[in-house]
Amino acid sequence: MAILKVARMGHPVLRRKCAPIAPSQITGAKIQGLIRDMFETMAEYSGVGLAAPQVHNPVRLAIAGGEVDGDGEPVYRVVINPEITVLDDDHKLGMYEGCLSVPGLRGWVERPAKIRVKAWNEKGQEEVFTLEGFPAIVMQHECDHLDGVLYVDRITDMTRFAFETEADRFLEEADLDPEDEAED
Ligand code: NI
User: Fold this and answer.
1) Which of 67, 97, 122, 142 is catalytic?
2) Is 122 a catalytic residue?
3) DSSP symbol at 59
């Protein structure tokens, strides 16, 4: 197990289209070791997800969280060679996204709120599942990394791109609780 170095915005590894992983290699030592190290790295930096290119491995593998199980414990999905289908293009969900590769910053991004994901899991099995809400946002953010796309590319209003502390103080409340704001 090892905590890996996280590539930061500007490093070309974050801008590459990543290579698919042969399904026969998923259960091999190399990919299994990478998955373990990515989990350890994500925990170290309190990430809700992590994509392989963020740790200098430009392959189509990502971990995405945001879900909880029946006991309220966080659930993380490992997706390999994922394919995303948008299920409802009309319903978008906006939030301030952050990224371990863009430390200290947050930006408002709107994405489809409901998706279907087809991917191989860490056991080498092909899976299809549906995500809605926050877990769908996390999954799309992580899968974007596999195509060299960062959330900053998806910010349409640059007045809502800010340092974390300023976003917390000045932006989040106004954007996320418009009704509360109106009552004040
Ligand atoms: Ni990210």
Assistant:
1) 142
2) no
3) B
Backbone angles phi, psi at 92, to 5 degrees: -105, 150
Strands (E), the chain: 49-51, 61-68, 74-86, 92-97, 105-112, 114-120, 126-132, 161-163
What the block records as the tokens of 28 is 């091999």
Tokens of 105: 């910053």
Checking DSSP bridges between strand 49-51 and strand 161-163, what pairing results, if any?
A: unpaired
Mean pLDDT per 10-residue interval, the chain, length 184 residues: 96 98 98 98 96 98 96 95 95 96 97 98 98 97 98 96 91 56 40
Instruction: Output the CA 150–ligand 1 centroid distance in Å.
Output: 7
Topology of the domain comprising 12-183 = Peptide Deformylase (3.90.45)
Q: Side chain identity at 23, as an amino acid letter?
A: P
Q: What is this structure's pTM?
A: 0.92
Residue spans of the domains in the chain: they are 12-183
